Amino acid sequence: MSIPTEFEEKMNIFIKEKNPDVSQGVDIGIKIEKMGIDFYTKSAEKAGEDVRHVFTFLAKQETQHLSLLKELKNSLIENDRWKEPGAMKSCGRIPKIFSKSKKYDYEISAMLHALEAERLSKKFYSNFAKKIKNPDGKRFFEKMAEFEEKHLELIKAILDSENFRMQS
User: Is the pTM value of this prediction over 0.90?
Assistant: First the structure.
């Protein structure tokens, strides 16, 4: 018997099957990305001007992920073919966004929330990739997990930045 992951418990989406239907993973992925878009968009609206671009960037990334999942779903329905997720745009070097003279309580809280959400999303995609038998499906969901890992790295780098450490 499988044990639910943290994400499956929090989302109430426990996948019991050892070889689940791919459409189930795609549909859950679509929900995950929509929640990410909503969270990052709202965070960008609330964040200070100097931090807003990070949340806007992440919202755009989640929008790209959502498009990939929707294209995959359509391709599987129409042609029974897998789509290869391409490369995602990198944000490049980590910007110094925290000014020493300003407090960022909301932004720090939102970044910590984002860190946990990205960790759980990565875990879902990784676990789903392990559960499905189709090699194209495995590659697709492993790539989705890699995208989430890149978000984790970005957020961790920002939280580890010198000016952020001075805030906490």
Answer: no
